[in-house]
Write a structure and sequence with these properties.
mainly alpha
């Protein structure tokens, strides 16, 4: 009976060590996943800031194009000797101001394409972050379960 008790204790201690090793591995995995999550969040913030900068630049480009268009019209009218028409058409000759998704008539298709590409990239990063968060929760649950098993084995020992 004493030998059997020693064998069962040895077996339980071996199982405990195995579980502790597994818990340590899962903790390392958890730390790695948390680091990945932080990196993904940083990437997402960078992508969002780039998207904001692109939007601001696009709005500036629209305003500049409107100014250039207005100045060209004024110079054409002045060169024709129609200075009265410039004063009369001051508000009517200007195109409507740009909206948030403005392409400014001719616009820049490359810029719009880049904007679409960045929006897709941001969505992909958000999806990836959600997946990492899900994996992180699952790993935390697994760690908690293994810690409970370790505590039960300790109690048995």
């Amino acid at each position: 009976m004493l030998q059997q008790e020693l064998l069962s204790r040895t077996s339980l201690e071996t199982q405990k060590l195995d579980l502790m090793t597994e818990v340590s591995e899962l903790k390392l995995k958890l730390v790695g996943m948390e680091k990945e999550q932080r990196e993904q969040e940083e990437k997402q913030k960078k992508a969002e800031s780039v998207l904001n900068v692109i939007s601001e630049l696009q709005e500036q480009m629209c305003r500049l194009q409107l100014d250039i268009h207005r100045q060209i019209q004024e110079r054409l009218l002045l060169s024709r000797g129609c200075s009265e028409e410039v004063a009369a058409s001051d508000g009517a000759a200007q195109p409507s101001p740009c909206g948030p998704d403005c392409a400014c008539g001719d616009g820049s298709p490359e810029l719009l394409q880049e904007l679409r590409h960045l929006k897709i990239k941001v969505e992909e990063l958000e999806n990836e972050r959600n997946q990492y968060e899900w994996k992180l929760k699952a790993t935390k649950a697994e760690v908690a379960q293994l810690q409970e098993q370790v505590a039960l084995k300790d109690a048995e020992i």
